[in-house]
Each structure stands twice: as structure tokens, then as C-alpha cells.
Amino acid sequence: MREFVEFECTTCRRRNYTGDKNKKAHPERLELKKFCPFCRKHTVHKEQK
Ligand SMILES: [Zn+2]
Hints:
Elements: E1 2-9, E2 15-22, E3 31-36, E4 41-48
Antiparallel strand pairs: 1-2, 1-4, 3-4
The structure holds zinc ion.
């Protein structure tokens, strides 16, 4: 079972990344360090539904 998720930059609140994840392997909200083109640096991106 895969679920479609969006990742939002916690600094500027923009949604920069989309993808899917394995809900069984990661039932909790994911937090990933990704490059934000709006902040122009790596920031923490939180999973949004
Ligand atoms: Zn940002």
C-alpha cells in the first residue's frame, strides 16, 4: 500500500516535493532535509497530506 504525500518546507511553507511512501514502513510523519529553491538552502521538509 502506497500513499501519495507532499513535503512542505518548514521555513517558507511552500510545497516543493511530492512522492509516495510506504505507509507500513513509515506510519509516522516524515521529516526530510531537502533543498528548498525558495529558501535557497537545505531545510527540513515535513510530510503533508
Ligand atoms: Zn523554503
